[in-house]
Design a protein that fits this description.
about 160 residues; 6 helices; transmembrane helix; membrane; transmembrane
Length: about 160
């Protein structure tokens, strides 16, 4: 449950799926975006979770594809959430760059650009049976989803 040290190509793929749209977003932020009022405690949870998740997905080989079993459905569910995350980014980039568009739900999923990747990393941790990624995802979720919910409430 602690994990086997070794490089994870699945982790690298997930991080690329996460970072590439965020890099593009940094040049296309919502025109009305104000991040100066973020809760410092949530921000701390977010940063710690980001660092721990990023490290965990790369240094444990348990996330790499193994022989197919019922356990593989955790990986498939996780990857499906990452695909939905990418679709949400496409939706954002092909519409107006506003906070309302950035935070809007996706088929009932609240703040999908925060909740989808966090949940995907949590499921990846379950698939790999790596407690470090599971715990990191929970920490990240508290901060990242919490901040997104605060922003969403502020624009309503």
């Amino acid at each position: 449950m602690l994990g086997h040290l070794g490089f994870s190509y699945i982790g690298l793929i997930y991080l690329l799926m996460l970072f590439i749209p965020n890099i593009i977003w940094s040049k296309n932020q919502p025109i009305d975006y104000d991040y100066t009022q973020e809760n410092k405690i949530l921000l701390l949870f977010e940063r710690v979770g980001q660092i721990c998740c990023s490290c965990s997905v790369l240094i444990f080989s348990d996330f790499n594809i193994a022989s197919f079993s019922a356990w593989s459905f955790w990986l498939l569910a996780s990857f499906l959430l990452m695909i939905l995350y990418e679709i949400c980014w496409v939706r954002y980039f092909t519409n107006e760059y506003t906070e309302e568009n950035f935070y809007r739900s996706f088929y009932g999923i609240p703040v999908p650009l925060a909740s989808l990747p966090v949940t995907a990393f949590l499921l990846l941790g379950i698939y790999g049976k790596v407690v470090w990624l599971i715990a990191s995802s929970i920490i990240l979720g508290i901060g990242h989803i919490g901040i997104h919910i605060q922003h969403l409430k502020a624009i309503k």
